[in-house]
Amino acid sequence: MSTAERELCLPSELESLARTGMALSFHARVKPHAIAVFSQRGTRTFAQLNTNANRLVHVLANAGIGHDDGVALLCPNIPEFLEVYCATRRSGLRLTPVNWHLTGPEVAHIVADSRAKVLIAHADFAAAAAQACNERLAVRLAIGGAIPGFDSYEDALHGQPDTDPTNPRLGGIMLYTAGTTGRPKGVYRRNPLHIGPQYAGTLANYDPDTDVNLLCGPAYHGGPLTFDVTYPLVSGVPIVMMEKFDAETMLQLIERHRVTHTHMVATMFQRLLKLPEATRARYDLSSLKVVMHGAAPTPPEVKRAMIEWWGPVFWEYYAATEGNARFRISSQEWLRKPGSVGKLQPECGAQVLDEDGKPTTPGVVGEIYFRNNPQSPFEYFNAPEHERGRWRGEHFSVGDLGYVDEDGYLFLVGRTADRIIVGGVNIHPQEIDEVLLKHPAVSESCTVGVPNDEWGEEVRGVVVLNEGYSPSPELAAELIAFVRSNIASYKAPRRIDFVAELPRSETGKLQRRVVRQRYWASRTREI
């Protein structure tokens, strides 16, 4: 808490406001003219950000949108994203930020499945937004330009009261995860998680007088949304927003804004390290204090190179959209335990279990289980049957394999689940298989993740052809294009391998893991 904040109120007031999603209101009162958001498409002071959030609260309330109603947001990393976030956070609404890389039908599925009554979309994604419209939507707002059938976001806010809501109520976030079966599912908490400034400050070690947070990944993703949006907003720390990651641009922004905190993924490290040495040495990065990273494992040689360049500012974490087992590891710890993602903390409920559900001994690989937070338990929205087999009592697994060493440090070694992680983004292979099987040439399909030094994994299609078709580069290119025409392009295979048959169990079940293992045989770990 800054000197000015201490003079104006007790620390308990900020904590109390945060419990109802009103922390921004506190910072707007204490430092109204300080810049809260820097972006290529404009800035906002804390007062302006708070004012626009309040105006949106009134717009939605006047339309009859009430507690626990769904709001879908299709928006890039721009100030309006934060305005919508803050408005829903203080009005008890359920916000679903939608991945704007998705196709129109994919966006439409999430908007419909989330039972959203509000769709707020940027004109950059007008085509997808138009396809996502359905009869449930009571409010449709377009940011930054016109979308047929949508009202203007800017016009809707104009003239609305800028006063704080009289009865604020903490709203929640419902993110969609690829899971392990078919289409994405919403991870929903009926009792939203409260993240107060003390908790955020403890994790990020913020000084609101001097610190600056850089958002360099998509805000619709859980990691950036937590570390680069939620934590700085409740703590009164300004946010610099990048719409698209670029390695040298990131270095420029760190130097220009004296950035202290950010969240990254391993692919970003790879791209930074590929910059020419002269470029890397050109920028002053001495302001950096904390770089959180997760979503996918970082190769040890890559992380070591980043520590040598930026210093011991890196904190790695391991978690899931469904829950956080508080696995984190500092740079200093990691140098002693290279490859670890942190220490197992039994009090947080994480366990490594064998096939019989018993805790493993040090060095023995087992499946990693998280405990469902009893204060804010999650469920798969609209899909109670989803991944039912992943539960053991109140513990759940996302299918990762690992072992704990004699000192209690966790090391990831593989994955039982089918999901593919490309640059920190989850992709489910069954969704790709379903598209490939619609092509007349394909008899069977088994999409898997294979090693990729930059992205961690890449998508590989493994198919059996129908009679009358022969393997060829032209057919492979045709199949890849076919996938791209049906689902988001980042999910499409980068290569297609043709095989005579696919391995199946005695019951006829496709053994995807057997196919996957062939590509990872030369690696020390399958993740």
What can you see in these coordinates?
The structure is a single chain. The protein has 527 residues and is of the alpha/beta class. Helices cover 31% and strands 24% of the residues. The strands form six sheets. Strands 2-1-12-11-13-14-15-16 form an eight-stranded mixed β-sheet, sandwiched between helices. Strands 17, 18, 19, 21, 22, 23 and 24 form a seven-stranded antiparallel β-sheet that branches. It has a six-stranded parallel β-sheet with strand order 7-6-5-3-4-8, with helices on both faces.
Which helices and strands occur, and which strands form pairs?
Blueprint: H1 3-8, H2 11-18, H3 23-30, E1 35-38, E2 44-45, H4 46-62, E3 70-74, H5 79-89, E4 94-97, H6 104-113, E5 116-122, H7 126-131, E6 139-143, E7 151-152, H8 153-157, E8 172-173, E9 175-177, E10 185-189, H9 197-204, E11 213-215, H10 222-235, E12 239-241, H11 247-257, E13 261-264, H12 266-273, H13 277-281, E14 290-293, H14 300-310, E15 314-320, E16 323-330, H15 331-336, E17 340-343, E18 351-353, E19 366-371, E20 378-380, E21 391-392, E22 395-396, E23 400-404, E24 409-415, E25 420-422, E26 425-427, H16 429-436, E27 442-445, E28 448-452, E29 456-465, H17 473-484, E30 495-498, H18 512-520
Parallel strand pairs: 1-12, 3-4, 3-5, 4-8, 5-6, 6-7, 11-12, 11-13, 13-14, 14-15, 29-30
Antiparallel strand pairs: 1-2, 9-10, 10-20, 15-16, 17-24, 18-19, 19-22, 19-23, 21-22, 23-24, 25-26, 27-29, 28-29
Helix pairs in contact: 2-3, 3-4, 4-5, 9-10, 12-14
